[in-house]
Design a protein that fits this description.
Strand content: 5-15%
Strand order of the largest sheet: 1-2
Oligomer: single chain
Number of strands: 2
Distance between the termini: 52 Å
Order of helices and strands: HHHHEE
Largest sheet: 2 strands, antiparallel
Amino acid sequence: MTPVQCREARELLGLTEEQLADMADLSGSTVADFEAGRGVADCLADALEVTLEAAGAEFIADGGGAGVRLRNRVEPKEPASSLGAADGQ
């Protein structure tokens, strides 16, 4: 995950730097430093990535340009017993 991907994922998820820091059990300055491109320890960057993925971000590898998107959310299906009930079957 790049610093830009981190910031974009956080923004897609509607999180502030402080909220992400709390979720990852890190300091707000660690998030700010990473997103600004200032070096942080690999384990801290990994903690941010794992936290963002758990929250629904999906990172796209640099194959045509690195990016980030929200994971597709599967809508719950109606129970089979309710199918056809509306049309009297």
